[in-house]
Amino acid sequence: GAVVSQHPSWVICKSGTSVKIECRSLDFQATTMFWYRQFPKQSLMLMATSNEGSKATYEQGVEKDKFLINHASLTLSTLTVTSAHPEDSSFYICSAIENRGRETQYFGPGTRLLVL
Amino acid sequence: EDQVTQSPEALRLQEGESSSLNCSYTVSGLRGLFWYRQDPGKGPEFLFTLYSAGEEKEKERLKATLTKKESFLHITAPKPEDSATYLCAVRSNQAGTALIFGKGTTLSVSS
User: Fold this and answer.
1) pLDDT tens for residues B74-93?
2) I need a labelling partner for A77 at 20 to 30 A (CA). Which of A54, A110, B22, B89 fits?
3) Binary contact (A103, B34; C-beta < 8 A)
4) Which candidate in B3, B23, B49, B85 is best for mutational testing of the A interface (most A CBs within 10 A)?
5) Rounded CA gap, B62 and B103, in Å?
């Protein structure tokens, strides 16, 4: 149990376009989801915390108008990278908290974004 | 400020050579310490959660322990398939539901 999926697994886009990444909790409901970014050989950097039915909370230095997060249901959160530029190329990973027991956080498989 | 430090950054072992990875933490009220395994190009895979000093968890060749200042991930008789980056993370009273990650230890096991 406790499976989190992401779609797409990788995407290549042109500079200036927008890209949407979906994160789904497949077998549990997730009131809270998180979006991380990871650069090569570095650890995960938290971008924002997404709560179902309310606005996301962004970490310091993360542009909320560039990284739009929507958590419309208890099983789906989306991250939209607007007007993407090459510096936005990265590995984006979502996670979800399973509210059974002690709030273990489960991660999706990640989405590799390459902006040309 | 909450902080998590993992050591060593990289570890090379021969198959069967047991060792330990360290995770030192400084937090304002520990609400859980988490170990994850991450393979290249994939998301972290949950391994263990520890909540209080003295607690231990085991899974196959892995055993995690916790004290008031650090956690160890012991790997007994590792195999090449244990090669991965092992991440330690904490949840604290200050950080709410978010996890604070260390930089990870990259383990390579050769046959």
Assistant:
1) 999 999 999 999 999 999 88
2) B89
3) no
4) B49
5) 19
